[in-house]
Q: What sequence folds into this?
C-alpha cells in the first residue's frame, strides 16, 4: 500500500508578529481618538468605551491566535488511515481500517467529507479546504484507499 499524506490547514494571511502590530496600531488609534475628548471636554465615558472596544478586539485576536494553527492531517500508511484533527489545544486522533472505509463526498453546499468505517461511526474532514476542493479531496481519498 502506498503511503500518502494530506495536510489541510487554515489559510492565515498574517504572521503572529503582523497580528500583534495590527492590534497595537488599532489600539493606539482608538486611544488617539478617546484621549483628546477626555482632555478637552472631560468626557470620560469616551475613554471607557474605547477601553471596552480594545478589550473586545484583544479577545478576538486571542481567539484568532488560538485557532490559527488548526489543521487536519490524514495519513494512509502501515495498513491504517490516521485522521488527526488539531483544534486550539485539543488533538483528536482516529485510526481507521482502510478496507472498511467508505468515503462520502459532500452532498450539499458546506457539507464535509465523511469517512465511514464499517457503519459504526463517521469522521468528518475537510474543514479547511474550499467547498469546491472537497469533492476533489474525496475522490483522491477513494483512489488512495483502493490501491
A:
Amino acid at each position: 500500500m502506498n503511503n500518502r499524506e494530506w495536510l489541510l490547514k487554515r489559510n492565515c494571511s498574517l504572521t503572529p508578529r503582523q497580528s500583534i502590530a495590527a492590534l497595537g496600531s488599532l489600539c493606539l488609534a482608538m486611544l488617539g481618538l478617546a484621549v483628546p475628548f477626555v482632555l478637552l471636554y472631560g468626557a470620560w465615558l469616551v475613554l471607557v468605551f474605547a477601553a471596552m472596544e480594545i478589550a473586545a478586539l484583544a479577545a478576538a485576536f486571542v481567539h484568532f491566535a488560538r485557532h490559527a494553527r488548526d489543521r487536519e492531517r490524514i495519513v494512509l500508511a502501515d495498513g491504517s488511515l490516521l485522521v488527526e484533527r488539531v483544534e486550539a489545544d485539543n488533538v483528536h486522533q482516529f485510526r481507521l481500517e482502510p478496507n472498511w472505509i467508505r468515503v462520502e463526498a459532500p452532498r450539499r453546499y458546506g457539507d464535509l467529507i465523511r469517512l465511514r468505517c464499517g457503519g459504526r461511526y463517521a469522521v468528518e474532514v475537510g474543514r479547511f479546504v474550499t467547498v469546491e476542493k472537497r469533492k476533489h479531496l474525496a475522490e483522491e481519498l477513494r483512489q488512495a484507499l483502493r490501491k
